[in-house]
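ASSEMBLY PREDICTION REQUEST
Request ID: AP-0331
Submitted by: J.K., bench scientist
Number of chains: two
Total residues: 653
Priority: normal
Notes: Please return the full assembly, not individual chains.
Input sequences:
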Amino acid sequence: MSRSIDRPALIVGLLLLAAAAIVAFDASRQTITSNYGVGPTAMPYVVCAGLTVLGLAHFIVALKDGLPKPEDADGKALLWIIGGLVGLVACIALGGGFIIATALIFACTARGFGRDALIIDLVIGAVLGTVIYIVFLKLLTLSLPAGPLEALLS
Amino acid sequence: MDTLLSLANGFSVAFEPSKLLFCLIGVFLGTAVGVLPGIGPALTVALLLPVTFKLDPAGSLIMFAGIYYGGMYGGSTTAILLNAPGESASLATALEGSKMAKAGRGGPALATAAIGSFVAGLIATIGLAFLAPWLVELAVKFGPWDYFALMIVAFVTVSATFGDSPLRGLTSLFLGMLLGLIGIDKLTGQARLTFGVPELLNGVEVTTLAVGLFAVGEALYVASKRWREPEEIIPIKGSLWMNKQDWKRSWAPWLRGTAFGFPIGALPAGGAEVPTFLSYSTEKKLCKYPEEFGKGAIEGVAGPEAANNASAAGTLVPLLTLGLPTSATAAIMLAGFQQYGLNPGPLLFAEKPDLVWGLIASLFVANVMLVILNLPLIGLWVRLLAIPQPWLYAGILVFATMGTLAVNPSPVELGMLFGFGYLGYLMRRYDYPVAPMVVGLILGPMAEAQLRRALQISLGDPMILLENPISATLLGIAFIALVAPFVMKGLNKFKAAED
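STATUS: Completed
Returned structure:
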């Protein structure tokens, strides 16, 4: 094994310690404590202690074998999908409705998986979204977020 | 016999036409979604949870039972025909099953998996029906300290048995417990870790976490390494049916697999992984044709697949009688119960016997439906496997977001879903198991509540945990299970140094 420090393990360790610190900080601000037994701060401190121990254990791992080495990732594919997810949140937040959001996520994911037909996939996604919207509304009486396209349907 | 009477009562619920229909829909949907590569039973249940929102509790739980069993069947089809196990419990099935399929014996492999699952499911469900009332009687006597100790055992075994590194398993568990802290503390009404975000006051939804980790995480992970050649579907050649010799070689592994699966699944140890591999290695030893192992021995499909299904029914024992989920799937099912304000446990058996026994009876019905449905419909399931990968994962993400959009269409909730998705991707990449996180999220707050209740009764004296024989024993077991892997590792190193 290499003697150098394994960076992923080091980062995980640091993140765990940071999480532990946040939990401890939040718990220290609690005002109500109970008379008998343990109050609402006990469990956070237990979790905090656990995270601290695990964080330190990760430092040891970083110095020894490190975490398993992952294969190279296809960054472009990831970016397409993450872009689609962000687009979906934006679409819902801005009131674009379920169907447009579905078309976006469908087309971007398919693109991320290597399909080269963005327009066709947008149409497929929109059709899928429309079908799901109608099924949810009529059969399950659950309403999905509505936008301009949904307004046309009802 | 009380059990038989209750069970007969349950069947009268399960045989209502509407319930039969729900069960059929559940079985069908469960199989269809479970067949899709990359989707295991846990995700199947999580994805289909919103579909059951508007049904009455009994109908939706019965549909759930069908989805659960259907998802298990679907998973074995993928494992055999695609050599792509959707969960670690079908790894053993994929090992021999895909070899059989390549040798043109995919039909018998699917048949022995289906019939084996049927036999195992039947026996294990009978076991559940007879064990549950007995356990419920025992559970009534449990104090909060005993429940707390039981949950600690579940914590330790869940994180130590999933994956091969206890450190990474425990990290995953504690991250789940951390998420479990978020929201309003049930005993004092104080907000914890919400940072003023109102959407966080209700805590993190189990389904959001599960769908994010399993569906979004898996999609990102597969996409990130997509230039590697995609799995090929192995076409089914020859007869679908098992011949006489197949039957002769299958029945004993079915029974042995069930014998492994049910008890291990029913223990708070949980996890279907251990019994499937135990069954696999046992069959390898007992088989009259050991040379066939690795090349497609039918015993290697029959045994593990039976073990897998039996342990799935086994995990329902602690879930229904104690309210204790011991697998990711069980954790999501518990969330399904909670959405109706139902808390599984001894009280539920007393208050809603129709519901509980109807559910148990439906498991029998679902099992029968599956074996009837699955064998003739294999052609249809195979066609589902042929969906091109881009569309498949695009569809999975549409369904994953659909659930969240239907229940809670806020940007914060969606952001959490995708945040968990990215976390799931990173965890897969560095080989952290994700299941303990789901269990930690749902079990963490429950353990906290029991501990605080116990300490309130004892006026703050923690010794109450060690003074009661049951809780003391359980905590001892948990401690041994936690320390054993590290000690063993040390021993192995010691031995290696001596050699």
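REVIEWER COMMENTS: Chain A has six helices and no strands.
SIGN-OFF: pending second reviewer
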